[in-house]
Amino acid sequence: LEEMWDPKALAALEEHMVNRFTEQVADLQQQRLSGIVRSAVHYIEEHLSDKLSVKDIARQVYVHPDYLSARFKKETGENLGHYIRRLRVEEAERLLRFSTNSLAQIAEYCQFSSQSAFTKVFRQLKGMTPRQYREAAARSTGR
Length: 143
Description:
Elements (H helix, E strand, L loop, with lengths): L6 H25 L3 H12 L7 H8 L3 H12 L3 H19 L4 H7 L5 H12 L3 H12 L2
Helix pairs in contact: 2-3, 3-4, 5-8, 6-7
C-alpha cells in the first residue's frame, strides 16, 4: 500500500478490500443462520439476475413460502423481498462502476420492471440516482 501512488490502483485495492471484508462479514453472519435460510440466501445469490419469487425460492429449499418468509425475517431481521432488492442494488452498483452498460440494460439485468422503478429503488437505498452514482464513481477513479 505504501508503494502505491497510482490513484486507479489505490481505488482498485480499496474496492478489493471492501469486497473481501463484506464477504467475511457475510460468512460470519451466515454461520448463525439455519440451513433453510442459508440455502435460500445461496439460491438468491446464484439467481439474482433471474425472476425470483418467495414461492420459487421456498420450492428450492423444500419449505412453505410463508414459513420461509417468517424464518428469513426472524433470522436476518430483513424482509425477503427487501433483501433481494438490496442485493440487486448492490449488483447494480458494481455494474455502474465497472461496466459501460446503459441504465436500462442494468435495470433489466437486475430484474427491475423499468428504468424508473430501478431509479426509484436505487435512490431509496443509496440516496442518489444510478446516474449520479456512476458519475461519482467515475470521478473517484479518474475515469
